[in-house]
Each structure stands twice: as C-alpha cells, then as structure tokens.
C-alpha cells in the first residue's frame, strides 16, 4: 500500500527527469539544518543530562551511593514504584477497553468519550491534584465520611496513586485508538465466523495485533507515572519518608542545599528515562520488523 | 508476563512486611520551610528523652513547606499531630476553617506558644556592593530585593510588616508606609512561594542584591554557601517574629497521641531544646538561655505584631486578605 502511494506521488517529477530527492536545497542548507538540529539537541538535552550526572558524582561515587541509599530516598523510590505498579496496569485495562469500544463500535456519545480521555492532557497537573483535594479532602465532598471511617486518601499513598493514574490515563488509550481504527474489525469477524468466542477473539486475534502499540503505550505511561510532579505534589502532604515520590524528594533535597543528594536521585530518574527510551526504540524496531514480516508473508 | 506478575506480588509483599516490622508511636509535625534543620536535630533528642521517660519509641515525621500552604494541607486533612508554623494567623486558620483546635490555643503554652523567636534581617552579597545598611536602602533604584510571596509564605508576611513598621516610624503615618512598601515591592523581581525558595533564588540562582529573610535562615544560608561570603545586615528596626506551635486537638484525639504530642511541644521549651534552637540561630524564649547566648544575637529594636499591627487577625485582614493592601500594592 505504502509503495503505491509513493510512486504515484513521485511519478510526475520522475517523468520530468528531476532527481528522486525530497528537496532541491543546496548542500549547505542541509548541513546547516542538520547542524542546528544537532546543536539544539546537544544544548537542550545532552548538556542538562550530563550536568545531572556530573553534579550527582561531584563528591565521588561514595557520596553518590550514600545519597541513593538514604532511608528517605529509598522510601521515595518505593513509593514511586508502587504508584507506577498500580496506575500502569489500571490504565492498561482501561486503555484497552476504551480503545476497543471506540474503535470497534459506534454509539452515541462516542466523540464525547474520546474527548474525555484527553482531559488529563488538557488540564494542568496542579488542577488534577486539586480535583482530588476537593473530592477527598477534609473539606471536600467525601472528606467527612472518609474521616469518620478512618480512610486516608489524600496525603497518603492512595491519593498519590489516584493522581498518578489520572495524569497517565490517556497514554494507552491514545496509542491504541488510531491503531485499532486502522486495523478495522475484519479479522475479528473472521474469528467469530470460525466459531471463536469473545475472549478467544480478544486473546488470539486482537491482542497479537495491538501488542506493540500497547507496549509502546505502557512504556510512555510508565515514564510519566514515575516522573509526575505537579499533581502528586498537591496531594502528597510532603511527609518525609512516607508520601514523597522521587520527583518530590529531588525538590526537597535541593531545597535543603543537599545538591549531591538531589542530583543523585534525579540521576536515578534520568536512568529510568533512558531505559524507557531504549525500550521504546526496541519496541519500535520490533514493531517495524514484525510489520515487514507480516507483509512479506 | 506471569513472571512479571509474581515479581510484582513479591515486591508488594516485601514492602508491606518492611513497613510494618517495628511498632512505634508516630507523630507528624507539619512545619514551615526554614525549620528543617532545627527539627532534624530536635526530633532525635526528644525521642531519646521520651524513651528514657516512658520506654516507648517515638518517631517524628516531618512535612515542610510554605506556612500558609501547610496550614491549608492540615485543613484539607493532612493528619498533623502538631503544627509548628511561621505565624499565629496560619494556626488561627485551623480553628476558623476546620475547627481542628480551640480558639484560645495560643494561651495553652508559655510565651504566646512560641518556643523560639526570630526576626527579619538582610542577607547581601560579599562586600555589600550596593551598600545596604537599612530598610531605606531597599527602595533605591537599581537595588533588586528577594522576598517570597506574602500570600503563601509566613516569612514573607513578617518581611512585609517589618518594612511597614520601619516606614511608618519614618513617615509618621500609614499612607507613607504604604508608599514605601509599594516602592519596595517594585524592586522585587520574583516572588517565590516559600522562604527556602527565595533563599535558593538568591544563593543558587544568583538573583537579587539583598534577600529579606529570617535571621536563622540568613545564618544557615551563610553557612551553606561559605565560599560565597554572604554578609548579614541587621537593620535599625525589625519585627519580633513569633513562630508558634500548637497541638491539633482533633487529630491527636482520633489518633490517640495526645500525651506524647503534648510532651513534644512542652519539650520545645526545655533547656535542652532551647540550646538546639540557639544552635540553629533561633532566639530562645527561655530568658536564662537567652542571657547565656546573648552575644549570638545582635540587639536591635523589635516591634511586636500585637503592639504595631493589633495582632495577626487584624494584620491579616488589612494587609494580606484578598483585596487587601498587598493586593492593591502588587496589582499596580
């Protein structure tokens, strides 16, 4: 399919005898543009990254590991992992369900649902946090009831998980909806015609088709879940060693003039981000690979 | 996938076991920004004191932030056993908005419930290049002043009122004071939300010629950034800042921590705690300790909030409430 499109587009030029290149710009323009892009990348991405690790290791490897092994730092790592381990699977289940019903069915209010999924992207994370304070806070709608029954939501782990889930809500669904829409329902119809039930169709036909897209969504979702600051900051209460996630702990250490500690924890977050990027590249590569193979068959 | 699942189950199990192994009494002290180092020192001392007295282990958790923001958190349900905030108005809010405490809370402990006091001083760059000696120098053109936002920061409100008290003394009337404070805020390039944020802006980001801050915060910044050679300038007149402490009655009753929380607050007034306060550049409330360490704290004229502004409720209403004097000044 892709091949056909390209050839029709290029045909008139090819007939006119022009070289098969995307642009006609002279060489220096291309070098300049590449140079600007690379320079920008180095200045805005690589330099800060290098600075994080440089600052973290400024007092040596010993100080670095002491900072990372600090009880409050470990507690923040633990809380960040808990938040990610709960919010990511929750959003996978929701994302697949939402993408499924949006891509495969048509119903009233479908565009409303699609818009609502994007809501967490559209509102500022601080507002996302405040929503939970307004609902679950002591002065909020459910606050008095929660206090009476001694249920802690905000300023405790559940609030942090909720806020994280809210801001990472769209990632999986957003990734899957266009994919599933492009794939259409023919293969599912075929499976059902051949006697498969709903679950079998999902596990054997739908899931294998969307698995790379899903994985990609999960990776992005996870990256944001671990890195979220604003929403979590509002519902955290900033109790040392208890309700501070890694990004919050970085801020606290920085404010305490503990720059090595702050950058050490920041470097852990940076490592998580780099691992995420590597995984993402692998997934993209595998996806392209699988795609080519599927077409070759 | 299955492996990942069982791994995460194991991880959870580990965390839950790890977090429930030691049985201890836990207190949450919700405090303002510059007390981090003080309470980091004081809490182990109290824990040792309490263990010696009762045999129980007490762990004190800390939460720090801008004073107003912290009060808001407690009102919204942050389960503080004690609050140790920058000013009485923020603790009053716990009574006004949530009935967490009784209105006479400030009478329950000695010295207006303030175990330590402080005042507002200036921190300037090495050699004092802009020759800042007193409040009058802050409104000169070309002087950049760093102070946090009085809307969110307790320290900032003390800064503001100290400037006001000085200007009123000079001008002799409120209108002159308002003009002076308005001119001062024209020289403020950035308003951080808390005192510590402002210190970082001044020291780490290198913005501004003078930082208005707590005496203790100024000393701490001087110590943390030794190589920068910051200098403390003590103005001719300043305000006596009384950061009060209070038991959050409703929370301690629910959690059953009343006795230990009360003991914790009383301990703040003990000689041992007072000495720790001095070590962190707070002015001790105990006259004995104050006399002993008098050389640590320069003498200057200190006005009190009650005498100069009719108490916090009044000052809050006039200056910092929505539409108050600060809003009028800063909107211009």
Structural class of chain B: alpha/beta
Radius of gyration of chain A, CA atoms, in whole angstroms? 24 Å
Number of helices of chain A: 15
> What are the low-pLDDT stretches of chain A, counting only 5+ consecutive residues below 50?
1-17
Total helical segments of chain B? 15
Classify the beta-strand content of chain A into a percent band. under 5%
Silhouette of chain B: globular
As a percent range, the share of strand residues of chain B is 15-25%
Mean of residue pLDDT values of chain B: 90
Rg of chain B, Cα atoms, Å: 21 Å
List keywords for this structure.
heterodimer; A: about 300 residues; mainly alpha; 15 helices; globular; B: alpha/beta; D-Maltodextrin-Binding Protein, domain 2; 2 domains
Summarize the structure.
The complex is a heterodimer of chains A (297) and B (332). Helix content of chain A is 80%, strand content 0%. With 297 residues, chain A is mainly α.
Tell me about this structure.
The complex is a heterodimer of chains A (297) and B (332). By secondary structure, chain A is mainly α. Helices cover 80% and strands 0% of the residues of chain A. Chain A is built from 15 helices and no strands. Chain B folds into two domains: 140 residues, 3-Layer(aba) Sandwich (D-Maltodextrin-Binding Protein, domain 2), CATH 3.40.190; 156 residues, D-Maltodextrin-Binding Protein, domain 2, CATH 3.40.190.10. In chain B, strands 4, 5, 6, 7, 8, 10 and 11 form a seven-stranded mixed beta sheet that branches. Chain B has a four-stranded mixed beta sheet with strand order 2-1-3-9. In chain B, α2 packs antiparallel against α11, α3 runs parallel beside α4 and α5 crosses α6. Chain B is globular, with a radius of gyration of 21 Å. Chains A and B meet through α4, α8 and α14 of A and α1, β2 and α7 of B.
List the helices and strands and how they pair.
The complex is a heterodimer of chains A (297) and B (332).
Chain A: H1 2-16, H2 27-56, H3 60-68, H4 71-104, H5 110-117, H6 119-122, H7 125-136, H8 143-148, H9 157-168, H10 170-183, H11 186-193, H12 198-227, H13 230-236, H14 246-255, H15 259-296
Helix pairs in contact in A: 2-15, 3-15, 4-9, 4-10, 4-12, 4-14, 7-9, 7-13, 9-12, 9-13, 10-12, 11-12, 12-15, 14-15
Chain B: H1 2-19, E1 25-32, H2 36-54, E2 58-65, H3 67-75, E3 82-84, H4 88-98, E4 116-124, E5 145-146, H5 154-171, H6 174-186, H7 195-203, E6 210-214, H8 215-224, E7 231-233, E8 237-241, E9 245-247, H9 249-255, H10 258-267, H11 271-279, E10 283-284, H12 287-292, E11 301-303, H13 305-309, H14 312-320, H15 325-331
Parallel strand pairs in B: 1-2, 1-3, 5-6, 8-11
Antiparallel strand pairs in B: 3-9, 4-6, 4-7, 4-8, 4-10
Helix pairs in contact in B: 2-11, 3-4, 5-6, 6-15
